[in-house]
């Protein structure tokens, strides 16, 4: 069964798609989490195992989502109906499309709030707000900002409007053009910041923290954290790669593209992480991860004076850029669904999607303020959104995709959809999906659910 033509057109080139797909994976989570995990769980040992997980889990799943998206040439729900019918499988498997769409909406709803903070901090940096600020003052300033719904709402709105404008221009004139311009710019900024920290003599301690091998610090938890990070860093199970893959030409070199995305994603995370932790250690600030690193520890690490203002402005602008490219890919997933399901224009679909996501994001925004203590089973609104998507929806969706492609889809159909000429490559891809990749996803689900921690306590 041949891959049908795309009624919407194709990416401008393989190089263009490479930057778009890399833009979907490179995000604020990579910068804020991977380097910290390396430092806490064995340095180079963690990095080596993480790269192995990318090859055995991330690469096969990434290629699978592109393969399915390219075969479907449709939104994630209608597309899975088509592929399930063509495979002669149960309609149960259409749940993959629903989970993918729900994940895209939910992830972007809280991601946009955090991304808005990065833009707000870039503006603050330009105004010299962080000049000479201490750690405690930086923490208090962030909490004051995050708990002020009016200020946070403004930046959340600005970010969603910006992402919406990009997507309304189309996947070629909007998403592709933005990725080709913005992501290389973010790379140049990361390289420039690394050069600056090398010249100021603050890189050596960061390198020791990130790369010193320590098997004792690695352990089974380090292995599980590396596996989990390798899955989440590729933006899998949340619909964006399915949507981007729908515009891929039939003869696109999947192997080279997937390797390229892994290389760009990893290299950027390491460069940005090196620059950030070099600044952290030079100022004597305690290392952290996530929001605490970027918005509480980091503002206190910038040098005083004009140089510090410029460094802070560049760094938060870089963070804003990578969040914007990732958000555009997620928004394309929901936009494409509305376009195909209701036959609307792209402008209407993107605007409607953005409004829905903006409104849902209010729950996350207020979770840092007036709704902070409004909890259900110990979690507020933001906690539930993050827990559902990261611990259940994304890994469960990826596991279902893995099982469907490797076990349910007929071999000839899968071979035709894969499209690569080398027969051994198809066999390797399907074998990885059937065994190590599927097992890894089951482990990720068990770890996310706390099952492995429970077993460890029981065993101990």
TrEMBL record:
Topology versus the membrane: Multi-pass membrane protein
TM annotation in the entry: 16-38, 44-68, 89-111, 153-171, 178-199, 230-250, 257-281, 301-326, 347-372, 384-406, 439-456
Keywords, alphabetical: Membrane, Transmembrane, Transmembrane helix, Transport
Domain of life: Bacteria
Principal location class: membrane
CDD domains tied to this protein: SLC6sbd_Tyt1-Like
SUPFAM superfamilies xref list: SNF-like
Cellular component GO terms held in the UniProt record: membrane
InterPro entries: Na/ntran_symport, SNS_sf, YocR/YhdH-like
Keyword Ribosomal protein annotated: no
Localization, UniProt: Membrane
Name of the protein described by the UniProt record: Sodium-dependent transporter
High-level lineage: Bacteria, Pseudomonadati, Pseudomonadota, Gammaproteobacteria, Nevskiales
């Amino acid at each position: 069964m041949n891959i049908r033509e795309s009624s919407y057109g194709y990416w401008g080139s393989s190089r263009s798609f490479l930057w778009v797909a890399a833009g979907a994976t490179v995000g604020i989570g990579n910068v804020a989490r991977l380097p910290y995990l390396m430092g806490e769980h064995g340095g180079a040992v963690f990095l080596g195992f993480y790269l192995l997980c990318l090859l055995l889990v991330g690469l096969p799943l990434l290629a699978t989502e592109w393969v399915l998206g390219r075969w479907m040439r449709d939104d994630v729900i209608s597309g899975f109906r088509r592929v399930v019918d063509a495979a002669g499988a149960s309609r149960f498997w259409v749940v993959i499309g629903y989970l993918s769409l729900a994940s895209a909406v939910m992830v972007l709803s809280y991601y946009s709030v955090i991304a808005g903070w990065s833009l707000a901090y870039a503006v603050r940096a330009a105004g010299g707000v962080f000049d000479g600020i201490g750690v405690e003052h930086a923490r208090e300033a962030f909490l004051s900002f995050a708990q002020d719904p009016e200020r946070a709402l403004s930046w959340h709105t600005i970010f969603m409007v910006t992402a919406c404008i990009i997507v309304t221009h189309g996947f070629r004139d909007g998403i592709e053009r933005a990725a080709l311009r913005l992501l290389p710019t973010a790379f140049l900024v990361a390289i420039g910041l690394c050069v600056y920290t090398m010249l100021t003599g603050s890189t050596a301690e960061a390198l020791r923290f990130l790369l010193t091998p320590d098997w004792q610090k690695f352990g089974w938890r380090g292995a599980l954290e590396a596996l989990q990070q390798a899955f989440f860093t590729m933006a899998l199970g949340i619909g964006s790669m399915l949507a981007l893959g729908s515009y891929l030409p039939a003869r696109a070199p999947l192997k080279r593209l997937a390797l390229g995305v892994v290389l760009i994603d990893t290299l950027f995370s390491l460069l940005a992480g090196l620059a950030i932790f070099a600044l952290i250690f030079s100022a004597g600030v305690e290392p952290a991860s996530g929001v605490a690193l970027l918005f509480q520890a980091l503002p206190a690490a910038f040098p005083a004076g004009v140089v510090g203002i410029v460094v802070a402005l560049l760094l938060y602008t870089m963070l804003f850029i990578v969040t914007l490219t990732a958000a555009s890919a997620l928004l394309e997933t929901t936009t494409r669904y509305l376009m195909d399901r209701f036959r609307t224009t792209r402008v209407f679909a993107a605007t409607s999607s953005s409004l829905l996501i903006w409104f849902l994001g209010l729950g996350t925004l207020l979770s840092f303020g007036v709704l902070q203590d409004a909890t259900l089973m110990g979690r507020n609104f933001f906690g539930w959104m993050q827990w559902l998507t990261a611990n259940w929806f994304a890994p469960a969706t990826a596991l279902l995709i893995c099982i469907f492609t490797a076990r349910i889809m007929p071999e000839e159909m899968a071979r035709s959809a894969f499209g690569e000429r080398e027969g051994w490559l198809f066999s390797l891809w399907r074998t990885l999906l059937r065994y190590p990749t599927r097992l890894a996803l089951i482990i990720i689900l068990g770890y996310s659910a706390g099952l492995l921690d429970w077993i460890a306590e029981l065993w101990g």
